[in-house]
Amino acid sequence: MTDTLLTEQTLAAQRPVLFRYALLQLRDSELADDAVQETLLAAWQSAAGFEGKAGLRTWLIGILKHKIADHWRRSAREAVAPIFGRTDEDDGEAEVDDYFMSSGHWNGGPKVWADPEAALKQQEFWTIYEVCQNNLPPKMANVFMLRELVGLDADEVCREAGLSDANYWVTMHRARLRLRECLEIRWFNNTKQEKNHA
Amino acid sequence: MRSCRAISALVSQGLDKELSLRERFSVWLHVMMCTRCRNFQTQSRFIRKAARRYTDELQSRLSNKP
Ligand SMILES: [Zn+2]
């Protein structure tokens, strides 16, 4: 096993990604932390089972998924709806592309946003952000969150979500177009925000 | 001259992989003259930043729960 040496440091380095994944699923910091610790311990104990082919993170997330499933099995309470991972649902028929006109020009299109940095500091912005994120179709939300919230690489996301390269680019672009439009309508163009600044 | 549809797709891809020199050049040329694509570029970067911060926000909200 010289080529796939698993050190404590290598494992520990994956902790933040695993924690974000667990947090989004379990919606509880302590539970998430426990699940990650169990995962790292299990990984450490079965380091020989790691073949290095699928990639370390993919392997670890596979273990973590089992730990999360175990948790819901043991726990008496209903599983909370995870923030992402509802991949069983279908996103329905291909959405109509109404962001662009047939000429390829924007239909409407991005306006200038006033002071986005300030928005990050406002609690109300995060409520709107969450609404917009929840409005993404489930599969699209899953891909977007694996990439941008959990922090997996593009090829890791493709493996996790079973996507081709081409599908990945289209999905991520659509997610950004949708989020952008939603934030523009609900936050940046909203008069309420101007009042807050007045 | 490529369309806004094509340029915005390249802008999106550029967040996830290194574009070719030719692609980068066509994006650069286009956004110099197109405000909407320039806005899209800024906004998609902002969305990435917000998304990365979202889990921290969620975590602090969860731990502040009574
Ligand atoms: Zn344009």
Automatic annotation (TrEMBL), chain A:
<dbReference type="GO" id="GO:0006352">
    <property type="term" value="P:DNA-templated transcription initiation"/>
</dbReference>
<dbReference type="InterPro" id="IPR013324">
    <property type="entry name" value="RNA_pol_sigma_r3/r4-like"/>
</dbReference>
<keyword id="KW-0805">Transcription regulation</keyword>
<protein>
    <submittedName>
        <fullName>RNA polymerase, sigma-24 subunit, ECF subfamily</fullName>
    </submittedName>
</protein>
<feature type="domain" description="RNA polymerase sigma factor 70 region 4 type 2">
    <location>
        <begin position="134"/>
        <end position="179"/>
    </location>
</feature>
<dbReference type="InterPro" id="IPR013325">
    <property type="entry name" value="RNA_pol_sigma_r2"/>
</dbReference>
<dbReference type="InterPro" id="IPR014289">
    <property type="entry name" value="RNA_pol_sigma-24-rel"/>
</dbReference>
<dbReference type="InterPro" id="IPR036388">
    <property type="entry name" value="WH-like_DNA-bd_sf"/>
</dbReference>
<dbReference type="Pfam" id="PF08281">
    <property type="entry name" value="Sigma70_r4_2"/>
</dbReference>
<dbReference type="InterPro" id="IPR014284">
    <property type="entry name" value="RNA_pol_sigma-70_dom"/>
</dbReference>
<dbReference type="InterPro" id="IPR013249">
    <property type="entry name" value="RNA_pol_sigma70_r4_t2"/>
</dbReference>
<dbReference type="GO" id="GO:0003677">
    <property type="term" value="F:DNA binding"/>
</dbReference>
<dbReference type="Pfam" id="PF04542">
    <property type="entry name" value="Sigma70_r2"/>
</dbReference>
<keyword id="KW-0804">Transcription</keyword>
<keyword id="KW-0238">DNA-binding</keyword>
<keyword id="KW-0731">Sigma factor</keyword>
<comment type="similarity">
    <text>Belongs to the sigma-70 factor family. ECF subfamily.</text>
</comment>
<dbReference type="GO" id="GO:0016987">
    <property type="term" value="F:sigma factor activity"/>
</dbReference>
<dbReference type="InterPro" id="IPR039425">
    <property type="entry name" value="RNA_pol_sigma-70-like"/>
</dbReference>
<dbReference type="InterPro" id="IPR007627">
    <property type="entry name" value="RNA_pol_sigma70_r2"/>
</dbReference>
<feature type="domain" description="RNA polymerase sigma-70 region 2">
    <location>
        <begin position="15"/>
        <end position="77"/>
    </location>
</feature>
Automatic annotation (TrEMBL), chain B:
<dbReference type="InterPro" id="IPR027383">
    <property type="entry name" value="Znf_put"/>
</dbReference>
<feature type="domain" description="Putative zinc-finger">
    <location>
        <begin position="4"/>
        <end position="38"/>
    </location>
</feature>
<dbReference type="Pfam" id="PF13490">
    <property type="entry name" value="zf-HC2"/>
</dbReference>
<protein>
    <recommendedName>
        <fullName>Putative zinc-finger domain-containing protein</fullName>
    </recommendedName>
</protein>
